[in-house]
Amino acid sequence: MAAPLSFDSVYRLLKRDPPAPVYYLTGDEDMLKEEVVQWIVDRTVDAASRDFNLDLRNAGDLTGEDFHALVETPPMLADRRVVVVKNLEQWRSNAKVWIVVHRYLEQPSPSTVLVLTHGPKQKPNNKVAQAAVHVRVEPLNPDRLRRWVTMRSDRAGVSFTDEAAEHLLKAVGASLSQLAMEIEKLSVAATVNGEAVDADTVAALVGVRRGETLQDWVEAALLRQLPRAIEMLPIVLAGSGTNGVRMVSSLGAGLIGLMLARALTDADGSRSQVHRGVFNAIRSSRPFGIGDWGDQAALWTEAAGFWSSTEISEALVAAYECDRRLKSTTLSDERAILAGMLLQLIPAEAAA
Question: CB atoms < 10 A from the CB of 153, how many?
């Protein structure tokens, strides 16, 4: 079976070639799937006839008969039509509709472009993947994420300085839906007079000042800056889309990176060797939502000097216990739970 196409690969393919009869979109980034669907629709159906030649359906609402009628309906005043069926996981593996789907995939209609999508964390259906152009859409790496922000802001009619775009990513994180919402908000609320939005404007409208993002809090904890980390708790917790669970999850990812940096340091690696080893590990594993890979490698390399391997292991246990407490109660104060974890991670005598 051929390897699935990436987000960028299918974009290039659609620019170069006519749409294929069937596309199958899988992976964890639903918003990028929506963008691929939009590319396919734009490439297939002109805006004037779209009301008649575009069907968007949820798999759970369709029987085999419904599916057959959709894909075999001829286009109206056009050469082709598009049928999009989302959330294939809503069909049980033994549902009769699959018989109809597989039969259609053996000989798809030449006048229909069918797009099938699976939700996040779903195992692809091998039969569908073999019969269709399979596109696996994964979270974007930091460089690609920056380009996505530029593309999205261009579409919204707003531009950012490099510093402003960097702060937006640090303040919001890698959630494309959250980024898209903030970009739209900035495009409406920012008075830019044709100039790029600066970092102070982003900070004011997103509600997160520079130096007070979730990433800044994780940095303070990893560098064992206890007063700074404690002071930032209410500020970071008040941020849009941020809660205690997200904070401790981000810290946990940082502690795992820190453990790698400490192990490389203990193996008598020089600072440059440790940084290179950590960066290569990040590039290989492509962890989601950790920000700029170079910045993270530099932070973990620097922070490794403040911790022993035993202390990092104990910190991971404390982070796990904090996560469990945050998820198991609605009565306790998130700020107090996180502060208690920080005091375990960073004893006063060890604070930088």
Answer: 23
CA 151 remoteness from chain centre: 16
CA distance linking residue 184 with residue 150, whole number of Å:
13
Q: In sequence order, what are the residues at sequence separation of 6 or more whose Cβ sits closer than 8 angstroms to the Cβ of residue 342?
A: 221, 226, 229, 230, 233
What's the pTM?
Answer: 0.72
Angle between helices 271-285 and 293-303 (to 10 degrees): 130
- The residue written with tokens 């199958």 in the block is 24
* 18-76 pLDDT, tens digit each: 999 999 999 988 999 999 999 999 999 998 889 899 999 999 999 999 999 999 999 99
Coil, strand, or helix at residue 301?
helix
Phi, psi of 344 (to 5 degrees): -75, -40
Please write the tens of the pLDDT for every residue from 296-306: 889 999 999 99
For 92, the token pair is: 């049980």
- For residue 303, which of 250, 249, 257, 247 has the smallest C-alpha distance? 257
Task: Fill in the amino acid letter for 35.
Answer: E
Q: How far apart are CA 289 and CA 319, in angstroms?
A: 18
Q: Is the pLDDT of residue 190 over 80?
A: no
d(CA 191, CA 205): 11
Please state, in angstroms and as integers, the Cα–Cα distance from residue 235 to each residue in 167, 206, 231, 242, 277, following that order.
16, 13, 8, 10, 34
